[in-house]
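Hi R.,

As promised on Friday, here is the backbone we talked about, encoded as structure tokens. Could you run it through your design pipeline when you get a chance and send me back a sequence?
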């Protein structure tokens, strides 16, 4: 006769937690013989100390050489710190083209005082994260750690920014990574399309240059190439140090201690590239999808049309055809209702990019091969319709725009990034409530006027894939002008 019994857990004698083994799993399973009610403190867990409630405050200091330090202090126990530089592919001279792409992957590698292994090990010791991001007009070096470890992580950040070794072995490793990224990007129609529309809009130079290193130059990048680019652009007048969850006096002291005040002041910043308009086509064989982008001169960061175009972006919305929503897309946005409803459209979205002295605004669409003429016609119709905005869709877009700004600023990482970019562009901080007020004050007439000004600028056209099915530049331009 079989008899079943419930498994028994052998009780272990309770020992003082001060002498218990340092392994939490062992403590839980060998020392505690009974369940602890959730209303009682768990034995052996350090007492939680209440964090001081610090009202967020923003401060700005300029070092003796012109480097700007901006920060927001708060009760957060996580500190984010970063260095923002007005650099990137838009500021690359012909002889150093591709350097920014390499620098993105050389960050937090070997320095003159530390090996790559030691840099990584020291960051991992304190649980810090680090990254380098290269955009068309900005390089961003970032570290994030618990607040008490800020001195260590900022020291590493400063070392990798000011004293990179740029060893041949590191560049050889990065070269392989760059080649892999180029291969992957060439298979991404959306990425290629955005590169091509920038090239068409800015005549292939400045902001029109590809942020990725050209394939023909990957094997030609040397340590000297990168050093020359850093000498040209990594100057004090182009640098901003930004932090969130940090004490401002401490951040300024760290910046001075680690040599930021000793960086060369630099000369006046060169003018950014100018919008020209134009056409770029990149043909592809086979049954690859066709991508079409139509764009016009958008708003620079300091132009009054910046906010109206930001709201207009939310009126258009967009995204992938298989996605049911997402920030900025919206089930009731124009692109979702009027473009993505066609099964042969794979994706369509508004393109809105602002830079220091220029910008680009338009629509991109990707469709099945052979549908180039149809997708181009759909995009033309949406652009022509921008000059009429209903009160309902305007209010919806304004709510989405305000929500996106306020929601993003809940993140410490977004706060320090916003501070750094604002200081680079404006030389001051614009409070979120001021931007929200500008959005709330917009009328349909304001948005329609911005749309008319937009459409009056020269057209930029980019085609990727089955380019033979997309009409000529002059045909598309005439279609946009017809009422």
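Update: got your reply. Pasting your designed sequence below so it's all in one thread:
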């Amino acid at each position: 006769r079989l008899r079943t019994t419930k498994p028994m857990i052998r009780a272990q004698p309770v020992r003082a937690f001060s002498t218990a083994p340092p392994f939490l799993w062992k403590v839980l399973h060998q020392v505690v013989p009974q369940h602890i009610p959730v209303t009682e403190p768990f034995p052996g867990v350090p007492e939680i100390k209440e964090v001081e409630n610090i009202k967020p405050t923003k401060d700005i200091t300029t070092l003796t050489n012109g480097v700007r330090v901006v920060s927001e202090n708060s009760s957060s126990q996580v500190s984010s710190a970063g260095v923002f530089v007005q650099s990137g592919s838009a500021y690359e001279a012909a002889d150093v083209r591709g350097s920014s792409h390499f620098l993105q992957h050389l960050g937090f590698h070997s320095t003159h005082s530390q090996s790559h292994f030691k840099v990584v090990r020291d960051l991992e010791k304190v649980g810090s994260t680090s990254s380098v991001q290269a955009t068309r007009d900005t390089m961003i070096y970032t570290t994030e750690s618990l607040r008490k470890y800020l001195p260590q992580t900022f020291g590493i950040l400063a070392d990798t920014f000011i004293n990179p070794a740029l060893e041949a072995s590191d560049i050889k490793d990065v070269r392989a990574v760059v080649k892999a990224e180029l291969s992957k990007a060439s298979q991404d129609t959306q990425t290629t399309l955005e590169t091509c529309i920038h090239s068409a809009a800015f005549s292939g130079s400045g902001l029109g240059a590809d942020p990725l290193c050209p394939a023909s130059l990957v094997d030609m990048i040397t340590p000297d190439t990168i050093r020359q680019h850093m000498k040209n652009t990594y100057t004090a007048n182009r640098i901003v140090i930004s932090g969130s969850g940090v004490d401002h006096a401490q951040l300024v002291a760290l910046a001075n201690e680690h040599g930021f005040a000793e960086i060369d002041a630099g000369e006046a910043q060169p003018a950014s590239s100018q919008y020209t308009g134009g056409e770029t086509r990149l043909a592809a064989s086979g049954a690859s999808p066709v991508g079409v982008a139509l764009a016009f001169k958008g708003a620079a960061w300091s132009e009054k049309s910046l906010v109206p175009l930001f709201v207009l972006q939310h009126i258009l919305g967009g995204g992938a055809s298989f996605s049911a929503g997402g920030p900025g897309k919206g089930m009731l946005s124009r692109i979702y209702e009027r473009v993505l409803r066609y099964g042969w459209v794979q994706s369509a979205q508004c393109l809105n990019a602002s830079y220091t002295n220029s910008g680009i605004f338009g629509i991109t669409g990707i469709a099945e091969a052979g549908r180039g003429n149809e997708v181009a016609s759909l995009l033309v119709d949406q652009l022509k319709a921008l000059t009429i905005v209903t009160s309902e869709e305007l209010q919806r877009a304004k709510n989405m725009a305000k929500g996106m700004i306020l929601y993003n600023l809940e993140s410490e990482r977004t706060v320090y990034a916003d501070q750094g970019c604002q200081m680079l562009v404006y030389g001051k901080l614009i409070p979120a409530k001021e931007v929200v007020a500008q959005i709330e004050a917009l009328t349909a007439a304001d948005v329609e006027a911005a749309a008319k000004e937009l459409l009056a600028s020269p057209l930029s056209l980019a085609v990727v894939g089955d380019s033979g099915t997309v009409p000529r530049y002059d045909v598309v331009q005439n279609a946009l002008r017809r009422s």
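One thing I noticed while checking it: The longest strand covers residues 345-354.

Thanks again,
M.
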